[in-house]
C-alpha cells in the first residue's frame, strides 16, 4: 500500500509519498482504514486536516473512506 500526500504550501503544489507498507491482511475496508489511520497518526495528521481522498474507485477504498473520513469528499482517479 502506498499513501501519498498532496498539499499546497506557500501557494505551491507539492505531492510526496508519505509511506509505503507491505500489507499481509486482505485489503478490506476495515483493514485499509486501520492501516491509513496508523500512517496518518504516525505523521501527526489529524482527521480534520484531510480535505479530500483520492482513490482508484475500488469498492474497498470507497468503503474505507466512508468508514473513517466521512467529512472528506472522495475523488476518483484512474492515475492513482
UniProtKB/TrEMBL annotation:
Question: What InterPro entries does the database record attribute to this sequence?
Answer: RNaseH-like_sf
The name under which this protein is listed is DUF659 domain-containing protein
- Organism taxonomic ancestry: Eukaryota, Metazoa, Spiralia, Lophotrochozoa, Mollusca
